[in-house]
Amino acid sequence: MNKAKLVESMAKITKLPKSTCKDCLEAFITSVGGSLKGNKPVVLTGFGTFTVMKRKSRVGVNPATGKKMQIPAKKVPKFRAGKALKALVK
User: Fold this and answer.
1) What is the pTM of this model?
2) How far apart (Å, rounded) are the C-alpha atoms in residues 62 and 59?
3) Confidence class for position 72, pLDDT limits 50, 70, 90
4) How many CB atoms lie within 10 A of CB 21?
5) How far apart are CA 25 and CA 3, in angstroms?
6) What does the alpha-carbon distance between residue 77 and residue 48 come to, in Å, rounded to a whole number?
């Protein structure tokens, strides 16, 4: 499901206009991104938790040349599904 299909589904469930649902989805994405940028987790009970994970630097191999290269350390977003979401998917 892409963003457009998600907005369509939200509009169908809530019986609100698609434009309103799109604005709500954009606000959600912006809020989660802002919180993660500030290194604060977002916990949605029953759905899951968005956090920031730190990856260490490591040595990788360029597949085109076979040369070893250093991959720098970085922060990446991580999502862990909650109990209710896991049960729903089962």
Assistant:
1) 0.79
2) 10
3) very high
4) 19
5) 9
6) 13
Spatial CB neighbours of 49, under 8 Å, sequence gap ≥ 6: 41, 42, 43, 79, 80, 82
Task: Give how far Cα 1 sits from Cα of 4, 8, 14, 50, Å.
Answer: 8, 10, 18, 20
Structure tokens at 15: 């019986």
Cα distance between residue 72 and residue 20, in whole Å: 41
CB 48 within 8 A of CB 85: yes
Helix extents (H) in the chain: 3-14, 18-37, 83-89
Name the band, by pLDDT with cuts 50, 70 and 90, for residue 90. Answer: confident
Mean confidence (pLDDT) of the chain: 95
